[in-house]
Amino acid sequence: xxxTDLLHLSENEDRTQDILAAQEFAKRYLAAEQDSQERTSxxxxxxxxxxDPSRGVRKAIAKVLASSPHxxxxxxxxxxxxxxxxxxxxxxxxxxxxxxxxxxxxxxxxDAVQCxxxxxxxxxxxxxxxxxxxxxEKSCKALLDNSSAQVLQSSLLRLAxxxxxxxxxxxxxxxxxxxxxxxRYELLMRLAENLDxxxxxxxRVPENQRHTFLSDAEDKVVLRLALEAGEEDLPDxxxxxxxxxxxxxxxxxxxxxxxxxxxxAAALANLGQVPxxxxxxxxxxxxxxxxxxxxxxxxxxxRAHQAFLLAIDVARxxxxxxxxxxxxxxxxxxxxxxxxxxxxxxxGADEDVAAFLRRFAIDVARLExxxxxxxxxxxxxxxx
Length: 384
Description:
This protein is mostly helical. It folds into three domains: 1-92; 98-162, no CATH class; 194-374, no CATH class. The chain is 68% helix and 0% strand. The chain is built from 23 helices and no strands. The protein has helices at 3-7, 15-31, 37-49, 55-65, 73-80, 84-93, 99-108, 111-118, 125-134, 137-145, 153-162, 167-174, 181-193, 199-204, 210-228, 234-243, 249-257, 261-272, 276-285, 288-297, 302-317, 328-342, 351-374. Helix 8 (111-118) runs parallel beside helix 10 (137-145), helix 13 packs antiparallel against helix 15 (210-228) and helix 17 runs parallel beside helix 21.
């Protein structure tokens, strides 16, 4: 049977035979020598089959030609503009389609078309940018799941802007390490805003304590991000927090008590307008009077100065130089020592500051206990 015979099968013939014939044509085209009569004949046959009313026939051709760089360009482009189930294999894999063509197809395509393009292996940054700019939520999720895609930081920021109120998208974005700390912070804050009426919060947190609970949650988010921050990222993150009015006394005290000395130093340098390397050196060398001048310049309230000065003293005694964070056991000892000193009435400590420290001491102790359990250093037996 020749290709001419196959193309003229009667309408009542089994379409399975047509599908097999279409696959055979596509395979013969790819196997034929370039510029050969065989390739010319197969190209003509495939071109005619583009008008076949059976989606199965056209889809069979698309599957065979999808990944080949030698497929006939006009056939590939027609299939790419076909109905979704026919177009998807081409859109996912074909190296024939240019970036400009893919962007145009994406802009005009359905969810299925957009997802197929977003799932392409090695997706270039230009197409990823189009996905982030105008793609459906489903296609944007497909892009974030595509580990081989090239996605610029600016494109991730655009996604964060578009989907900041969608928890599922926020979760995927937060798992993307290329997202700047400031954007990760904003996404987490949007999620935190929804905690106010969360069933667990309503059930477990008394109404008069919810404001404190949510404020603590925000601070913990900041310090968790600060722990992950690289040296080049931390100053920008701190500046973002300053512009939002978040560099307050409570957060800085908590950072010391949790052992986040890098964040404390970066925040103090920002508020006091002192270069960070110089500030770290001053924290380890200058007298208390000079440190108090730095605290004053940073705008920290006088009532909290004693706590900060004591914390710096304790850190000095532990040989911490504020260029690295403390381990949890070291942070717990620092907080306990600080709290003991602050509870000495002779120091005239502000009760609000002492209350903060007591709360932070509990938090650090809980964090250390959880870490011990997680690492298998401590076993907990459930009550019978």
